[in-house]
Specification:
2 copies of one chain form a homodimer.
Chain A: E1 5-8, H1 17-31, E2 34-40, H2 46-57, E3 63-69, H3 74-80, E4 85-90, H4 99-109, E5 116-120, E6 137-143, H5 150-153, H6 155-160, E7 163-167, H7 179-189, E8 194-197, H8 206-221
Parallel strand pairs in A: 1-4, 2-5, 2-6, 3-4, 3-5, 6-7, 7-8
Helix pairs in contact in A: 2-8
Chain lengths: 222, 222
Amino acid sequence: MGEFRVIEVKRSVFADNDRRAEELRRRLREKKLFLLNLMSSPGAGKTTLLTRTIQRLGGEMKIGVMEADIDSDVDARRISGTGARAIQLHTGGMCHLDADMTAQGLEGLDTGDLDLAILENVGNLVCPAEFDTGASKNAMILSVPEGDDKPLKYPLMFSACDAVVINKTDVLPYFDFDMDRCRENILARNPRARIIPVCAKTGEGVDEWVGWLREQVEMWKR
Amino acid sequence: MGEFRVIEVKRSVFADNDRRAEELRRRLREKKLFLLNLMSSPGAGKTTLLTRTIQRLGGEMKIGVMEADIDSDVDARRISGTGARAIQLHTGGMCHLDADMTAQGLEGLDTGDLDLAILENVGNLVCPAEFDTGASKNAMILSVPEGDDKPLKYPLMFSACDAVVINKTDVLPYFDFDMDRCRENILARNPRARIIPVCAKTGEGVDEWVGWLREQVEMWKR
């Protein structure tokens, strides 16, 4: 298992988060570093999908991961086991990350040689959607057990995301989850969302997700 | 399907939420009205458990439900179908309810003849734990697909709850969820938590949950 640092990110004193997020995005573009902000409910499978993603992309690009959590370092432990560079961000009770906290995390991660940095945001479908982190793109995971009605109940999160991964497709037979209805619910809120059903546990569908991500990283570097 | 109102609860202007929560709790005690604050992640099964609870307890006590959501009235529709009095609270993007918002909801619910009021809080394991709503007791649902490590990652939520319902036990065979490890993780944060495994869908274990709730309502009225 690899080593990782734990960083206590401080609540931002800056009221103008949107402006700071734009600044961070501009700096990332200059450095040709793609930052993905990955969001979901607790337990939707962010860390498992990231582990798969690192396995698939780790040979062709240099990846670093920031695991944000209120407490604990369960996730950074898992990610550092993949060999990718990982740090744990503790938010001190905060329910989301803003652009300044993200910038603090990137500094701690040491991004000089990275192509792709991934921020695993706090597990929460509400607050993280309200704060632009400065990421190049936003993605979220909705897992099958959560239900196909979630886009109706958390519209801002679904609108804020460029890609929506629908995870845990292996348990579709055991849940009353209608994939078509879910797609409709997502597209009604966000017509441009890229919807990718996967099973991070078995690897099914992960090719499409990795393909989307690779394309985004390549476009960002142009 | 029954009728229900939609109430837009306003963000509280009061900084002293703890004092206002205590005041609300005192008023509830005087009125012999028990208020349960039910919390969980999105999709853990709050509304399904409530539907079961109303079916079991509706004959012996008068129940009202406040469905809090950022948007949509999916849940109030489902609850009003049970014949219980239901209202939908819209939080206007807020990720939690505080004591004043809860009091606004109770006013809208019209509690004069009720024995039990239930607040279905916003689906979120972070923010609702930080705000005392003034409820008599707090309960939460952790669903099996979310994983047995959630008490490590959302410690405040697990500490704040008097009862932890572990829902969706019917899918235990399909997930890597260790019930004993989960119990240990919960009790390490909250040694007095009452832990109740249920399957709200099939009704398994719901007797124990309903028994706990009945006991709390009776004790509150003494």
